[in-house]
Amino acid sequence: MVETITGVIGSYRMQRNDQASITNYHIGEIKMALIYTIASLLFVPASLADGAFEILLPKNTSLWVANGKARRVVIASDQGEIDTWSMEVTDSKGHTAHAYPSDIIFPQKTGGKSVYEKHVLVPETLKSGEYKLKICGSLKGGRKLCQKSDTFYIEGDQVESLHNIDDLQPHEKRFISRLRAFEDYLRKLDVEDIWPIHETHCTIPKIHKPSKEEFTEKCMKPGQACIITGMMDNWKAMNKWLFETFQHDPRIEDGVYVGQRLTPVPLTNYVKYLKERAANETAPWVIFMSDVFDLYPELREDYIIPDFFAESDDFMNNVEEELRLDWRWIIMAAKRSGSGWHVDPANTTGWLALVQGAKLWGMYPPSVYHIPGVKNNYYQKRDYDMEDAFYWWIYTRPYLKSNLPIECVQKPGDIVFIPTGWWHSVVNLDDTVSVTQNFCNKYSLRNCLTELREQADSDGGFIGRTFEQLRELYAQKYPQYFQQEDLDFEAPVKGDGLTEEDEKSRRLQALKDFLSGSTKTIV
């Protein structure tokens, strides 16, 4: 830069000595040129400065949701010299709202420019508001550079407790006492008492190595749940993803996220937990990683998606990453864990392939309005947050004489197909490893759109924006899937998608505002 400034000054001096040039070149213009040159060199954009970097994501249009899910951070450096990193989320006042571990970002080389990319979890503790990422990088020589991202928005997802545990009433304390007694009972219960792991009774239809045409006609098109066999014979995962070998896989040495933990732990720790503690817990911890293939993309090479589940058929593929619902997971689950009756989010279609262990499945078609022994509510999204799956299989299933679900024990190498709208409940009869994906293809898109519109206000309006983007992408190209109310819809629509409790809370707050005089009407 000094050489450039010197050159400009030298050029100016030469022009002063050249009387002919002075007559044709006004002195004011020379000064302005000199000032502009110096200023442009002193105020070089951060992305172009020597050794500096540029934050490509998040940008000012990015939306993060504080729900413990991962979002992508991308940094570009002209030099590629950055050795170590630190990163924090800062609020609108510049205060640190959350600090990430120092090794949060890893480099990926692309061409002549170094691109550093990492999926990071968005802490559930963050409240709704505008934030920036402050990222600092230390060069190998010891110099430290810091950069801030554009201002972007984070939607808070935290739910505050309505009760102080210290203020419990006597009847509430009695309820807790009974609950603890029941938990002790569950700890002593063997899953063999619920369903023998080697039970051959199976009422879920099975289909062996179907072609795409056969599967489409027999299962996908009519929406028939089934178990697919013979499609996992060539999967590397069948050997690599067993607990005993997977825990030592160098590809996942950075760890896994157990339950709602915000920091990863080594898989060896979870395997130790399975052996020593899980059997004594009523609701054992489960690894349910939606961002696993972003964190460890090499794992994607270990399984082969059947052509009848091709990702290219998924209408969600073109939705922006930050608006797309979670859609694929690796699940590692302890024996005795499971899920109560539920329909998958957004009425998506899904499949689950089992690598290790055994899972007991129960399934009801969408035509079943009420599942025996299950407390329903009006919103399918909430229906899977029920009590432990054990409850139904202990207290209801043994006494059913009619209206039975189709049911079966899934074994390693089996893929369960869950069509859109199908209710299902799962109990892990052993420690299990599985991979699962959800999608909206042409056979389920209509149901997906209806559910997304229904849940428009959920997650801070996030789902409503997902619906709008699907409409923008496909309404003109595939008009047969869209109804007039889809075209008229605007997100978020006040009250659309609210649970009964949400609506009660809204009305109570409106009444308080009216009584306090802050508003003149009750809405």
Automatic annotation (TrEMBL):
Signal peptide: none
SUPFAM superfamilies, sorted: Clavaminate synthase-like
Cellular compartments per GO CC: cytoplasm; nucleus
InterPro entries membership: Cupin_8 (IPR041667), JmjC_dom (IPR003347), JMJD6_ArgDemeth/LysHydrox (IPR050910)
Chain ranges passing through the membrane: none
Pfam family, one: Cupin_8
GO biological process assignments: methylation; phagocytosis
Cofactor dependency: Fe(2+)
Keywords for this protein: Chromatin regulator, Dioxygenase, Iron, Metal-binding, Methyltransferase, Nucleus, Oxidoreductase, Transcription, Transcription regulation, Transferase
The keyword Kinase is assigned to this record: no
Record-annotated JmjC domain positions: 294-456
GO MF term set: histone H4R3 demethylase activity; metal ion binding; methyltransferase activity; P-TEFb complex binding
Main location: nucleus
Compartment(s): Nucleus
UniProt keyword annotation of Magnesium present: no
PANTHER family referenced in this protein's UniProt entry, alphabetically: ARGININE DEMETHYLASE AND LYSYL-HYDROXYLASE JMJD, BIFUNCTIONAL ARGININE DEMETHYLASE AND LYSYL-HYDROXYLASE JMJD6
Membership in a protein family: Belongs to the JMJD6 family.
Protein name per Swiss-Prot or TrEMBL: Bifunctional arginine demethylase and lysyl-hydroxylase PSR
Organism: Stylophora pistillata
The gene coding this protein: PSR
